[in-house]
Design a protein that fits this description.
The protein has 13 helices and eight strands. It is α/β, with parallel strands linked by helices. It has an eight-stranded mixed beta sheet with strand order 1-2-4-3-5-6-7-8, with helices on both faces. Helix 1 (about 55-65) links the parallel strand 3 and strand 4. It is globular, with a radius of gyration of 18 Å. The termini are far apart.
Length: about 300
């Protein structure tokens, strides 16, 4: 017998953080905050996760004096799930609005996976709001686009192997909700490094993500991110977006990437150098997959904190 769908508020997991809703860019965003009294650090999650993927970094960054805020992206968790707005223009506007709504004029922006693509876009479209940029397993959006075309057997196969399936109407939604979200576990196992995938911490994390993907509306909204990414390439907005984010990033950039990441390759992350104009650091973590901030939380947090402090 299938269990009832979880209530959106079920993602407000207890911990050393404060949950609240913030109005930004015309929608309501749920955030979890640990305030260490210092500069704002906005943490943006990826697929198929929610704010909780930053559980380690939230408290650790606050302990080091930062105001750490992890947000449920538009369509995820306990944030609003409007019928449209899953393009990088709007998603970057959500983050820009969030920074202002939190009462800050600038923030350090940290993103993983889709959150990283959004972070790159915020830095390009709203540069005055960004102090620095740290991206985890997230090459520049134009580096991904170029690599898919120029390396079809590498990044092309890695990306299109799952992204094409997400373009089909309704079927991806059904498959991700089936068996209480079991496919989420299979996706994360395929993308994670072998050590974390075999751990009890991974098993516990997957249970949270399986439940969160079943919150009404989440799985459809998550698919809309991927649908826009592909379909925009065949519309006028694709070239317009590429032109808008083509200017080299002027703020300091930290890239953290897993050496074993099977869906966004290290070579694609390296190719992002073309769109970085200032201070730049890159760290490739051995024996690590697509989730460095969860697979090696202490090491990843130390890299982020050291970068922010400098």
């Amino acid at each position: 017998m299938r269990r009832a769908a979880p209530d959106p508020s079920s993602v407000r997991l207890p911990g050393p953080w404060t949950h609240r809703a913030v109005s930004a860019n015309g929608i309501r965003l749920h955030v979890a905050e640990c305030d260490g009294g210092g500069p704002l650090v906005v943490l943006l999650h990826g697929f198929p996760e929610f704010w909780w993927s930053w559980r380690h970094q939230l408290s650790d960054l606050a302990d080091q004096g930062f105001r750490a805020v992890a947000v449920d992206l538009r369509g995820y968790g306990d944030s609003d799930k409007p019928p449209r707005g899953y393009d990088l223009w709007t998603l970057a506007g959500d983050v820009a609005g969030l920074i202002r709504a939190l009462g800050e004029s600038r923030a350090h922006v940290v993103g993983h996976d889709w959150g990283g693509l959004i972070a790159w876009t915020v830095a390009a479209l709203h540069p005055r709001l960004v102090r620095s940029l740290a991206v985890i397993a997230a090459p520049h959006p134009l580096a991904v686009r170029a690599a898919v075309l120029r390396d079809p057997r590498g990044q092309g196969r890695a990306t299109l192997g799952y992204a094409l399936g997400f373009q089909v109407p309704r079927w991806p939604e059904r498959s991700l909700r089936a068996e209480d979200g079991a496919r989420v576990g299979r996706i994360m196992c395929a993308w994670a490094g072998p050590a974390w995938a075999a751990s009890s911490d991974f098993a516990d994390a997957v249970e949270y993500y399986r439940r969160a993907i079943q919150v009404p509306g989440v799985v459809h909204c998550a698919m809309e991110y991927y649908r826009w990414a592909l379909r925009s390439q065949f519309r006028a907005e694709g070239p317009r977006f590429a032109a808008a984010v083509s200017r080299p990033c002027a703020v300091p950039v930290l890239q953290v990437h897993g050496a074993l990441d099977p869906c966004l390759l290290v070579s694609t992350a390296v190719a992002s150098q073309r769109w970085i104009g200032g201070d730049h650091r890159r760290q490739v973590l051995p024996a690590t997959g697509h989730f460095p901030h969860q697979e090696l939380p202490s090491e990843t947090t130390a890299l982020i904190a050291g970068f922010l402090s400098s």
